[in-house]
Design a protein that fits this description.
This protein is α+β, with helices and mostly antiparallel strands. It has four helices and six strands; from the N terminus they run αβββββααβα. It has a domain of about 80 residues: SH3 type barrels (Roll), CATH 2.30.30.520. The protein starts with 7 loop residues before the first helix and ends in a 26-residue tail after the last helix.
């Protein structure tokens, strides 16, 4: 007796959910520029910092404003300026531009679904789509994202080009309030 397996749609749904989990960034929607606009974008990259606190850790998110002495400055989405001592940073992720992880995940999903038309060869083509598509989705999702645990001054210094003030925080900083980047 032949038993029909109806788990295909569930498997495809889980595949899509797994692939799209790779493509998220903590930047607000529409905030990151396309890769070709990065050289002319006047705003800093989006920074996600986990910092040490008295009782554990906390998260700080915002535009990478710049470096001064041994501190990192970021501007929150609501316009609050935060100064974080580098020694208090547990890990940091800098998002420089939008990536194509979502498009790669969708292509992988649709390619896997299309293997239904292959009949018996689906047993070969579907896993190929899933494996290669997952690898490509992860690679596409991580382009423009730079993570560092326990970042030192050299790490911060190497990414200061992606700050609003790459030359360092100006001396008269704080006299004129900064405005957050407008986005969708």
């Amino acid at each position: 007796m032949f038993v029909r397996n109806n788990n295909g749609p569930i498997f495809l749904f889980l595949l899509l959910c797994g692939l799209t989990g790779c493509v998220s960034s903590s930047a607000p929607s529409g905030w990151l520029p396309p890769v070709e606009s990065v050289p002319t974008d006047v705003y800093g990259g989006w920074l996600k910092v986990e910092k040490r606190e008295f009782k554990g850790y906390s998260m700080a998110l915002g535009e990478f404003i710049g470096l001064r002495d041994s501190a990192v400055f970021l501007l929150t989405e609501k316009g609050y300026l935060k100064m974080i001592p580098m020694k208090d940073v547990r890990n940091a992720t800098l998002f420089i531009h939008e990536n194509n992880g979502g498009k790669a995940a969708l292509t992988t999903f649709l390619g896997t679904v299309s293997t239904i038309s292959n009949g018996f060869y689906l047993l070969i083509t579907a896993p190929i789509w899933i494996i290669s598509g997952t690898i490509l989705t992860v690679q596409a999702s991580n382009k423009g994202n730079y993570y560092q645990a326990e970042p030192d001054f050299a790490w911060w210094d190497s990414f200061k080009l992606y700050a609003r003030f790459p030359q360092g925080i100006p001396e008269n900083f704080g006299q004129t309030p900064l405005k957050p980047k407008p986005h969708e």
